[in-house]
Amino acid sequence: MRPSGRAPDQMRAIIIEPNYTRHAEGSVLIGFGDTKVLVTASVEERVPPFLRGKGEGWVTAEYGMLPRATHTRGNREAAKGKQSGRTQEIQRLIGRSLRAVVDLKALGERQITLDCDVLQADGGTRTASISGAWVALRLAIDTLNLPVDPIQRKVAAVSCGIYEGTPVLDLDYPEDSSAHCDGNFVLTDDNNIIEAQVTAEGACYDEEGLLRLLRLARIGCAEIFAAQARAVGR
User: Which residues are listed for phosphate binding in this entry (predicted)?
Assistant: First the structure.
């Protein structure tokens, strides 16, 4: 039995509230159970120096956790003067995941930045950030009225792991902190894989174990894609 009482292939409740803030071109509050992330998309009519004059845009991301998003207060990284390696890795993952489904030439010479701020953490903050960032990006691009839609597919992400010998979907904190193996899968709605991060945490896994986790990830992402569609109306 999972600590939450969920079935092995059962997601936590998914809540997506679009247009959550007033000023950003796109915004969303996304919840995977008790994990809550605010994502805003900001459009700027400029590109990084390495893209100037190339006729294409850029999609990037920043990620952070509020000091009391977890059980104990953490110091703001700004107060430390530098980002942690974990933060840098997660925001690069978010940016890569979104760029994989965006035609940057169709976007034109503009940059869209996705700011993902974790309000409350209970496992799966990076996967909730990616899934919410797609919604915020979709809403922001809709405001541009471009002749060609730069977004080619939906993208969603979910965590899976092996807990007490059983592959399970959408790990919450009690499972994530003690799973023998945990992974994050980033998938598109046409069944392609953008990224799979699967790590043994004290016990190795075999090929069949990996495939079982991937099958669970497909189940979870199908639910997320449906929630995204409801949030953006398509």
Answer: 86, 124-126
In angstroms, what CA-CA distances link 39 with 16, 98, 109, 228?
A: 11, 13, 22, 14
Residue 209 labelled as part of a binding site: no
125 is in an annotated binding site: yes
- What value does the mean pLDDT of the chain take? 96
User: Sheet holding 26-32: strands in order across?
Assistant: 14-18, 26-32, 35-44, 111-120, 58-65
Domain 14-232 CATH superfamily: GHMP Kinase, N-terminal domain (3.30.230.70)
Q: Please indicate if the annotation marks 126 as binding a ligand.
A: yes
Q: Which two tokens stand for residue 92?
A: 């690069």
The closest of 7, 1, 37 to 169, measured between CA atoms, is 7
Q: Is 55 known as a binding-site position?
A: no
Sequence-ordered strand ranges (E) for the chain: 14-18, 26-32, 35-44, 58-65, 111-120, 155-163, 166-169, 181-188, 193-200
pTM above 0.85, yes or no: yes
